[in-house]
Design goal:
elongated; Alpha-Beta Plaits; 4 helices; 170 residues
């Protein structure tokens, strides 16, 4: 069964979804993404020797700030107030493997009628873009990739967990 897109009215006009009848629930979402880079760039990030300063510290703050402003960036997204926003980083491969990378993960928690997924996706994207901005002087070939919703709970649609081996493209 295919669900209809809910940001369009019967005439095909873009609309903000009416959430007035929705129930308030606890909601949580986590999104992740990767930025691929040269091994030397990863070394600069890990050692804290970037000319612009603490790359991951600034990227963490950028991710949180962007998540808070999601409704300003995504036109039909409702403004929400969340109780928690965390942006964390990991290094899935080392420099000798298939490539150097940083993985970012943004987790949002809130109690409300809507929200969490878009905020988590916006937060992780801004964090990765900030890494690019802070390191572009030494590596303009960095690539942002695999930005995705990992998990979501709460609301009418229930609990979603991304399958472990889900395809990169649907």
């Amino acid at each position: 069964m295919e669900e209809a897109l809910n940001h369009f009215d019967e005439a095909g006009n873009a609309v903000m979804v009416d959430i007035s009848e929705k129930q308030i629930t606890e909601r949580e979402a986590a999104a992740s993404g990767i930025i691929f880079m040269k091994p030397q760039t990863l070394s600069i990030i890990k050692t804290g020797t970037a000319k612009k300063g603490d790359v991951l510290g600034v990227a963490r703050v950028a991710g949180i700030m962007a998540a808070k402003k999601t409704s300003f960036i995504i036109p039909l997204c409702h403004p929400v107030s969340f109780e928690k926003c965390a942006v964390d980083f990991s290094f899935p491969n080392d420099e000798s493997n298939s490539g150097a990378m940083v993985e970012a993960r943004c987790t949002i928690k809130l109690t409300g009628k809507t929200g969490a997924e878009m905020e988590a996706l916006t937060g992780v994207t801004a964090a990765l873009l900030t890494i690019y901005d802070m390191c572009k002087a030494v590596d303009r070939g960095m690539t942002l990739s695999e930005i995705k919703l990992e998990e979501k709970s709460g609301g009418k649609s229930g609990h979603y967990i991304r399958p472990q081996n889900s395809p990169r493209r649907v």
